[in-house]
Specification:
alpha+beta, 106 residues, 11% strand, two-stranded antiparallel sheet
């Protein structure tokens, strides 16, 4: 199922990421990124950049590179989850058994 993003505007996407990264559950971070997820960590830490002109003014759009695509995808995920992301991290649910899919992609 495809879900349309509520907006493509950059500012709400970045705000959604900031809100999720700043969210706490008790004394713990609401979001943890596994060490094996280096691509996302790298994108968020140093790869998602904005061009600056000769006067040092930043552009309003990020530089499109291998990091920006990962960061953009994460922004859309944070928009999609919205407030639900916070309650999901604070709620423990019973594990469900994995079921084999009855279809395949060709």
């Amino acid at each position: 199922r495809i879900v349309k993003a509520p907006t493509n505007d950059l500012e709400p996407r970045i705000s959604a990421v900031e809100a999720l990264l700043q969210r706490r559950v008790g004394t713990e971070a609401a979001l943890r990124i596994d060490k094996s997820g280096r691509a996302l960590s790298n994108a968020l830490e140093f790869g998602y950049i904005f061009k600056k002109d000769k006067n040092g003014n930043g552009s309003e759009a990020p530089v499109k590179n291998e990091h920006s695509h990962i960061a953009d995808a994460f922004q859309y995920l944070c928009l999609l989850l919205g407030g639900a992301a916070y309650s999901l991290t604070a709620t423990k649910t019973k594990a469900r058994p994995v079921q084999k899919a009855k279809y395949r992609y060709v």
